[in-house]
Amino acid sequence: MTETLLDLRGLTKAYPGVIANSDVSFRIGVGEVHALLGENGAGKSTLVKMIYGLVKPDAGQMTLRGAPYAPAEPRAARADGIAMVFQHFSLFEALTVAENVALGMEKPPKLRDLARRIREVSETYGLPLDPERVVGDLSAGERQRVEIIRCLLQDPKLLIMDEPTSVLTPQEVDILFQTLRKLAAEGTSILYISHKLEEIRALCDTATILRLGRVVGTCTPRETTARAMAEMMVGTTLKTPTPRDHALGNVALFVTGLSVASPGAFGTSLKNIQLMLRQGEVMGIGGVAGNGQDELLGALSGEIRSAPDAIRLAGQPVGHLGPNQRRALGLLAAPEERLGHAAAPDMSLTENALLTGAVRKGLERRGFLDWAKARSFAEDIIRTFDVRTPGPGNAARSLSGGNLQKFVIGREVLQAPKVLVVNQPTWGVDAAAAAAIRQALLDLAAEGAAVLVISQDLDELMEIAGQFAALNEGRLSDIRQTAGLSIDEIGLMMGGAHGMEVAHV
Amino acid sequence: MDLSSINPVLLLSALIVASTPILLAALGELVVEKAGVLNLGVEGMMILGAICGFAVAVETGNPVIGFLGGAAGGAALSLIFAFLTQYLLSNQVATGLALTLFGLGLSAMIGQGYSGIQAPRTADIDFGPLADIPFIGPVFFTHDWVVYASLFLVVAVWYALTRTRAGLILRAVGENHDAAHALGYKVVRVRMLAIAFGGACAGLGGAYLSLVRVPQWTEGMTAGAGWIALAIVVFGAWKPGRVLLGAYLFGGISVLQLNLQAAGVKVPVEFLSMSPYVITILVLVIISADRSRVALNAPASLGRSFHASS
Questions:
Q1: Where are the domains of chain A?
Q2: Cα angle for residues A160, A164, A167 (degrees, 5° grid)
Q3: B chain contacts of residue A103, beta-carbon cutoff 8 Å
Q4: CATH topology of domain A4-234
Q5: What was the ipTM of the complex prediction?
Q6: Do B296 and A136 touch (CB under 8 A)?
Q7: DSSP for B129-147?
Q8: What are phi and psi of A259, to 5 degrees?
Q9: What would be the CATH architecture of the domain defined by A251-493?
Q10: Is it true that A4-234 and A251-493 share their CATH fold?
Q11: Could you read off the pLDDT of A68-78 as tens digits, one per residue?
Q12: pLDDT tens per residue across span A310-320
């Protein structure tokens, strides 16, 4: 290994009820791209917050270039040459690019000089950016450039990147990786946090794997398979979902010329969506977040009404019907946002089961609720989908993300839908639960239902979907067979490298 | 009806005096809201400023110390709000409303011995020959120092918000407090300072009412000036220049409608009385009609509590 830049020894941090990090030790070399790998809740974010001075460790030491390092606040960390690109952008939408950059610097030059330097650096690293533009108008990829340039202007020795690719198209990921390799070649160390294994294999020199706050392994990603790393992350062997062979049936869902305006001020309107889904088929809809995914789910579930003929369920026009009428006909949906959209956070699981299950499971009679039946339906979901909770009386909010997601998906699957639409079914869910959810969707299709999966996780779509299309600015691309589809083609379907054309709004 | 009884010079001169309290309070609230805090207690801070300023001026015999007392009173009341909302994370809307009620009650109690007394006079600044220029002289150069200070404050607030690093940090805190915290800025400290500044401005505005505009102490004398200041900030799209415009428009129409009433215009008094509110809001709404530009100006974290736990 090369010269050590940052040495972590025995870092421990506990929050009430949770040990976020326990005795974490590893080293980052000069010019090394070091991956920090782990599932949600494995303690990655807490660890980098300690390095960046946002959180103080309870125990353990850090050494930077041989000298003790204990930043009291991010300012101190920045002064020592540590910069961070956050997972959720730490940008100010109403301010310009230059103002945003100035806020992240200790001693910013005058705005005019700063604008010049932003232009210089952005050209050097192939990240075109106009310092005068307001951040609110930029695409996700461009916003990330703002963050990266903010870091680069401080000439960092260590650049921390927390899940930087979750909002990028494959082409944008390529550009980012080229930049990072260039930086590493110039001697900047990079701490790269992700749970996307293929990316880590493509980019990183070393990987440290965290599980439940502890270091469970170190490996050289280029020489380790993605599967082996995933199993270190999860701690058990993973079952890959297996599709069962089955024939496709009649047309279950037919959407034609579906155009609806977004109900939200910053939403994306759907433009002339066209798709056909047959019984037993799983179709994946990819695309970068905010390109009409929520609106598509809303239009299909009945939250947003459209012309009757725009959506046909087994030949019957349903575009004008509301969610309950569509449920009665067998069109069910599970939206992305678990707390607040798919489930009411402060209501019990029984009540939540009732909310969507009342129509198809006969849980109400003449306006009166059948609590006994609702409770047994909730218990059925909990048992069938292995939802870890003390019982159906618990509030939805008390469940972990993965468990609540299993409940939400299970609730719809057990209502025996003819067509099921899900948005981001495994977002923020641990690998084991994600595998279970994917398997459930495949089983549902094998039993003859049509399944539409909207997701930003391309690996997931490639794994379970037979057909693939991408949403880009409210338009749906052509529908293609997933077998034989290359990642480049998918990227172009998603809109290519956003913002490479400078006037992109 | 005799419209010739309305003297435009006196009208314009009175307009400036009538507008100054609202302008001061609105400028303070603008800074508070730009930092992401919604303080609905402007009315309460103004009236406490009015009685504190009046009482201090009467006791010391010095109106300048009186104005300082008014600003201190408003700032002190705002710090109660600041402590409750920033450290105890209470709801800003409810706390602000409570602050107004508290301010009204507290000022009535303090003011019991001060009804019917004359305050020491605040002299107009002597501009010498400038005041003798026809029309312009009497309109612009016959006022007291607070009027000029309030106009200076408009420029100062604009400059500080748009051209200085402190202003940039303040706007950043109001725009996205989580991001500002992640970058290492002290969100709570910035907001405490902004709230205290807003309180001092509101107190100063209140003191101007009781020491110059009226000049006497009567219970509830702010009569909704704090609320109109709040509205002017929002409808003025958080821009100091438009806040100045809104305040002067409101003050101008208030004075004009009083003159019209005196002149015996055949319009029901109720309509004349409501006209300043209606016209001010209408004009500012029309100016700010481009919703997307306004949305960009509105501080995105406005009214949200911040806690550094996540």
A1: 4-234, 251-493
A2: 165
A3: 168-169, 172, 180, 183, 185
A4: Rossmann fold (3.40.50)
A5: 0.80
A6: yes
A7: GGGGSTTHHHHHSS-BHHH
A8: -130, 120
A9: 3-Layer(aba) Sandwich (3.40)
A10: yes
A11: 999 988 888 88
A12: 999 998 999 99
